[in-house]
Design goal:
The chain is built from 16 helices and 17 strands. By secondary structure, it is an alpha/beta fold. The strands form four sheets. The protein has a nine-stranded mixed β-sheet with strand order 9-10-8-7-6-5-4-1-11, with helices on both faces. Strands 12-13-14 form a three-stranded antiparallel β-sheet. The longest helix is centred in the first third of the chain and has 18 residues, at 53-70.
Length: 400
């Protein structure tokens, strides 16, 4: 593999410091998985025959070129390979995608490049290949550190394989994050405290901690509907959430977003682009994006089915099925929804400048008085810890 200037700059130093701006990201969706987890409603697909990666890489190159024509000259601040299971991609495929991005847009020096990986596909040679291609941050789908819970969640790896993958990732990449799922059936506070403590001991600088949710269209949804799967009720879930905030804060990984925790300076640059109401190009089957056109902010999406997406790209140079102008009200609600997820808060003046309307002062005052919202210096507001627990209701009230 020939090392590009882009990859060389990543290997030399990771220096993309957060400057507080939203940035411009590239999301690359790899939709294939070795198995479908029973809780997952993402656009992921299991195929008995492995896809032709060279054919897909060529299609990604075409769609990147199309997106660059829609958003010319923007400086890329982050790239995120999500899925599906991107660690099923060959390093050469990842390298081709990054080379295409490098040709299509100028890139910020030392920008963040994240790849999601499953412990079951962790391999030293493959990880080195990703690093040489330019990946400088790995996100591992660990989900639990107990074998019985991994089996319940439908994961293909064991707890020992998860620990080995974490150690391998820490030895290979400058930055590492991994995911955990809690609020599982019958999980007690003591059990979660012990497991979370183990996770923090293994973590490098970032953890994503998600409560198990029952999503329609998944096997877990069917089991839950038939009363064969019970998750903690709202009071138990709130207790688990509050314990999570306490332990991570005490151990130096405070929440910077509802479900994401990091040591200061190690926040995900790419995810901050979403939450700060930035722009990003969505590449690959079922990828969503937000682009700025002459008439305003557009929501884009591509064909979800991988084979149909590939056929579309080969026919017309891209797999986009939606490129819709967001009306001001919807865009404003989206900005609220994203911004109030962040511990750093939400810039009220930016909202008013972008959408030409103020937040309702009476509703805002009421939410402050009941402890759901707090005002910050510089004209910012943020949800309180109590507000985070009922954020959907807080946003619905403020956006009404």
């Amino acid at each position: 593999m020939v090392e590009s200037d882009l990859a060389h700059s990543f290997r030399a130093e990771f220096d993309n410091q957060d400057d507080g701006t939203p940035g411009f990201g590239i999301y690359v969706h790899w939709p294939f998985c070795a198995a479908k987890c029973p809780y997952c409603d993402f656009n992921s697909h299991v195929r008995h025959q492995a896809p032709d990666q060279a054919e897909y890489a060529a299609a990604y190159e075409q769609e990147i070129a199309h997106m660059a024509a829609l958003q010319p000259g923007r400086e890329v601040t982050s790239v995120f390979f999500g899925g599906g299971t991107p660690s099923l991609m060959e390093p050469a495929t990842v390298s081709r995608v990054l080379e295409a991005i490098d040709k299509a847009w100028p890139s910020r020096s030392g920008m963040e490049v994240t790849l999601e990986a499953n412990p079951s596909s962790a391999d030293a040679g493959r990880f080195r290949g990703y690093r040489e291609a330019g990946v400088n941050r790995l996100s591992l789908g660990v989900q639990s550190l107990h074998d019985d819970q991994l089996k319940f969640l439908g994961r293909l790896h064991s707890a020992s394989e998860a620990r080995a993958a974490i150690e391998l990732a820490r030895a290979t990449f400058p930055r590492l994050s991994f995911d955990m799922i809690y609020a599982r059936p019958d999980q007690t506070l003591a059990e979660w405290e012990a497991e979370l403590t183990m996770a923090i001991d293994l973590a490098a600088d970032h953890l994503s901690l998600y409560q198990l949710t029952i999503e329609q269209g998944t096997p877990f949804y069917d089991l839950h509907r038939r009363n064969r799967l019970q998750v903690p009720d709202s009071e138990q879930a709130a207790q688990l959430y509050e314990l999570t905030q306490q332990i991570t804060r005490e151990r130096g990984l405070p929440a910077y977003e509802i479900s994401n925790h990091a040591r200061p300076g190690s926040e995900s640059r790419h995810n901050l682009t979403y939450w700060r109401f930035g722009l990003w190009a969505g590449i690959g089957p079922g990828a969503h994006g937000r682009l700025a056109m002459n008439d305003g902010r557009h929501a884009t999406s591509t064909m979800r089915n991988p084979e149909k997406w590939l056929e579309l790209v080969q026919q017309q140079g891209h797999g986009m099925t939606e490129n819709e102008l967001l009306i001001q009200e919807d865009a404003g609600d989206e900005m609220l929804l994203m911004g109030l997820r962040l511990q750093e808060g939400f810039d009220v003046a930016r909202f008013e400048n972008e959408f030409g309307r103020p937040l309702d002062p009476i509703r805002l005052k009421d939410l402050v008085e009941i402890g759901m919202i707090e005002k910050m210096d510089g004209g910012r507001i943020r949800a309180t810890p109590q507000g985070w627990l009922v954020l959907d209701a807080v946003i619905a009230d403020l956006a009404a």
